[in-house]
Amino acid sequence: MKPVVFNPRRLEMAAFAKVQAELHGSVPLVDMLRLAEGLVSPADEVPAPAHWQASGSQRQVLGGVPEVRMRLQAQARVWLTCQRCLGPMDLELSVDRVFRFVRNEDEAAQLDETTDDEDVLALGRPLDLLSLVEDELIMALPIVPRHETCPAPLAALAAPQTTADVDTPPPCDQHSAESEEAGARHPFAVLKNLKIPPRS
Ligand SMILES: [Zn+2]
User: Fold this and answer.
1) Span from the CA of 82 to the centroid of ligand 1 (angstroms)
2) CA distance 176 to 49
3) Tell me: the pLDDT tens digits for 17-28?
C-alpha cells in the first residue's frame, strides 16, 4: 500500500490522525508575514527558519466517534525590540500544544470553554498547518518584550552622567553655605560670630 502523503497546507485531519501520521518541516520567518511584522532583524544575522513537528493520534471511544488529536510543536529564534532599553533582544519561542478536533464549530466552542489543557478545533475544511504554526508562534510572543537584564548602557549614554557628577560642587560646600545663610537669621548667629573668628 502506498503511504499517504499529507500536505501541511491542506491537511486532512481525520485521515492524518487515523494513521497516526507525522509531519515536520521548517518555514523561513520572512514567509510568516503576520509574525514577521513584529520582528526586527539584526543586520549581521540571517534569521534561522522556524521548525515545526506535528503528529496525529486517534482514540477509540466506546460507542462514540473516535477522538482526533494532534500534537503540534514549533521552535523559532526571533529578534524583538526590548521595551525597556529599546535595544534588540533575541528570544527562543517554543510551542508545544495538543489540539482536539471535533465534528463542528458548535461542539468546538462548547468544549473549548471547559477544556484548559488542549485547544479544540472543528474538523471540516482541510487544515492549514503552517498558518496554525504561525498563530501559535505569535501567541508565544511576550506582550511586552524585555531583556531579563538589559545590557550595560553604551559609553555614549554613560558619559553625560559621569560629567554631571564631576561638575556638581561637592555637597559639603553647598551645605555649609546654606547653613551660614540660615545661621545669619538665627538669634544666636551674633554670638556665634563673636566666638568664632571668620575664616580667612
Ligand atoms: Zn533591554
Assistant:
1) 5
2) 65
3) 999 999 999 999
